[in-house]
């Protein structure tokens, strides 16, 4: 993609966000009020849209029958994750349906991602690490789109919900330790927690748990922190041009960096776990 086309896409998103913020966020004193009727056009009623952070204690949820309220699903998070999954699967299908020696734009994008992660994974994990390329590439794609989708008006980042980074952290750590057992054997794997002395076992266990906590909370904190900064400045400046630019900065730039950091650290933990 040429620089001119990239600038055009960024400007289009910028203008779109300005329009949405002006209409649904408003420049009026009631811009922060959710549910305030803006206008009525025939049978259609338009409401002011609250662009602030939602209260996760009071969001629409799907509850599991017979279980307490803790075991429930945030409807917006689930819907956004399903939409992202459908988007990734659709793009992958369209890019691989008719492979060409001279790739088109969509095929070129996916080939670029595959080549980048293939080189990175092989350099870090060796030739045996090729089988982890699909997992790590899918992890990056999902987290990247989850982070940057907040720049699209009327959408929200699934990674802003702490449950999503924690779930990905649990999956990554499970794969890391399963691979460590496969590479070293169960006894050698368990014995590694007693190094250099057996009294260090509790500290080593806590260290492994700390890896997962830092992995999940780093992603969650950066995405939520960006949303908080945009919200505060938006309230102060009544949704003028600066918050729109900040929203795009945190959504596109910071979101891309955090997705790459999460994936790279996952790959690093995997390399350390299977090292001799």
Query: Hey, roughly how much beta strand do the residues contain?
Result: 5-15%
Query: What's the helical proportion of residues?
Result: 55-70%
What is the strand arrangement across the widest sheet? 1-2
What's the total helix number?
8
Query: What is the average of the pLDDT values?
Result: 76
Largest sheet report = 2 strands, antiparallel
Shape: globular
| Number of DSSP E strands | 4
Low-confidence stretches: none
What is the straight-line distance between the termini? 42 Å
Order of helix and strand elements from N to C terminus: HEEEEHHHHHHH
- Rg, rounded, reads 22 Å
Protein structure class: mainly alpha
Structure description:
The protein is mostly helical and 276 residues long. The chain has a domain at 95-274. It has eight helices and four strands; from the N terminus they run αββββααααααα. It is globular.
